[in-house]
Specification:
This protein is of the alpha/beta class. The protein has six helices and nine strands. The strands form two sheets. Strands 3-5-6-7-8-9 form a six-stranded parallel beta sheet. The radius of gyration is 16 Å and the shape is globular.
Length: 226
Amino acid sequence: MQMLVDYHTHILPELDDGAKDFKISLEMLEILKNQGVEQVIATPHFYAHREKSVKHFLEKRQRTFEKINSNSPLPILLGAEIAIEHNISEIKDIEKLAIQGTNLILLELPYRKHKDWMSEEIYNISVEYDLKVILAHIHRYLEYYSKEQIQQVLGTDAVFQINNEAFASFREKRFVKALIKQERQLVLGSDCHNILDRKPNWNLLKRRPKSSVIELSNGVLDKYKL
């Protein structure tokens, strides 16, 4: 039996716009546990233009991880949510931001019209480093992309990450159902940042997607394990 995996969280304290302190971080983890999650992937934001280097980011991530790991009610794998920027594929050590123990890497598209260079960066990271790209909360771009641009993104050889919130939106749920029907590789995540307006939300999945969708999501972690 596979564990229920949350592929997208901001539970590490004092690192990005997620958990603001140690206490909030542990509260978020407890909520996730109570909602049935058994494996958490920590994906703090990585913006290349804001960071000194990948190495510096990894050092910060490790320090904040150590603050909560021994007290965490759930096992945590380390990763990152990497903003797609010009030449992100050429950043030194970018491959080290892959999800711990896997060749999966979570990328976030910009919130503006899709451009060819974005698909090129996705392709370059995938090919140059032999990584399987996960595109974060793909349903959110319905607001920004034309139908043609959405199809261009869906044409990339990627795994598509769905936030649980999509199952509470008619338009986004319809989009996700179409992806399921097309047998796309999907993974699920809460994208939780706090315990208020962006809290853990696995309760939204009750009676929403078919159990097979959740099982396939859980299985991706094992499929791409090193």
